[in-house]
Amino acid sequence: MVQPDLGTTSIPASAPPHPALLSIVNDGPQGEQQFISRKCMSEEFKHCILPTPRGGDFQPEIMNWHFSFVFLLGTLASVCSQFNFYPLEELSSDVGIQVFNQIVKAKPQDNVVVSPHGIASVLGVLQLGADGKTKKQLTTMMRYSVNGVGKALKKINRLIVSKKNKDIVTIANAVFAKSGFKMEVPFVTRNKEVFQCSVKSVDFEEPNSACDSINQWVKNETRGMIDQVVAPDDVDSLTRLVLVNAVYFKGLWKSRFRPENTKKRPFSGADGKIYQVPMLSQLSIFRCGKLSVPTEYPRRGGTTSTPNELWYNIIELPYHGEMISMLIALPTESTTPLSAIIPHISTKTIGSWMTTMVAKRVQVILPKFTAVAETDLKDPLKALGITDMFDESKANFAKITRTEGLHVSHVLQKTKIEVSEDGTKASAATSKSLY
């Protein structure tokens, strides 16, 4: 699996982490997309070699990401430290990560690529237009105070796209409304203030034309990485609104991988077959660490921990802008399923990573890959307790319009990520259709 979030060597221990911009699970070959397997195919990949002193230097630790793994891409804790006067829960929401966990649970053998920030942004737009129980469910799941959603997400967006960031990050939001549909002025004004959300008029009576307008906007905002997020079948004459969030990221590694070191290496997929996949490789100084997840088993009267622990490695690969970094985590043993690690990941866990990692001279071997995913987020959100907004008889979006009853029909996200010798390009587009 893969999930993006924090880190560099200059991160203060007290700095709070930021929700991941993009989360990916990679779990074995699937055509040419899946490059990560549950098993290593040679003894040299079987164990990490811990650094040992020699004349004041260290032998490199081999960090070989040959099993299924999870990586996180997002803002560094050092950047977030400027907002230390806000409680962590006011700046970070686990809702995107929880959605990620739900998807992984439903598709344990698939690549999963998700943008938690995209999910949080679209839910934030909806929360500003919701009322009653619908608003309560959204606010509760996002774990912000009732009036804190807009404030927190506005600050998060500001720090992500900060001019101090040398990496390229853009975040855009838009409401595509049916021609003639009247929205409450406070909803439009507040979304423009918080999310820089523009309102555009389209004719859903002409599905092809409406989708062309939406998809062209997405293509422009994602620099061509994503050219379609809605299809004509997703809208019709009853559609009133389509909410869209687009995130684009391009970052060059602070320590780049040399192309001549990229080699194909054998991997065993979830289907048991062996695949040759291109692997990036470099020897350099990176912050890394090793953590454990206490195992538990059901017992009459509750759950009891066992003495055994599941261990996993983490490493931080910073981008040259030094405000965004990739974190990678994977089990130390090929026999440990990634599913045992994923539920452990949260903003709190990521915070503990930042205080645990130390700089080491390591040999990093990482898959070079492109992954694309299109995900229906409706079921994962419902599983997390956000249900009323999908129910025509229960949805309450009175703060969007008081003249019509609205409910959410579709919640779709399309994501793409490319990891190469130079760095990472990632993009995500999230849409919600209201009827």
TrEMBL record:
InterPro entries: Serpin_dom, Serpin_fam, Serpin_sf, Serpin_sf_1, Serpin_sf_2. Residues 97-431 form the Serpin domain. Pfam families: Serpin. One of its GO terms (molecular function) is serine-type endopeptidase inhibitor activity. Keywords: Protease inhibitor, Serine protease inhibitor, Signal. One of its GO terms (biological process) is negative regulation of plasminogen activation. Belongs to the serpin family. This is Serpin domain-containing protein. It comes from Callipepla squamata (Scaled quail).
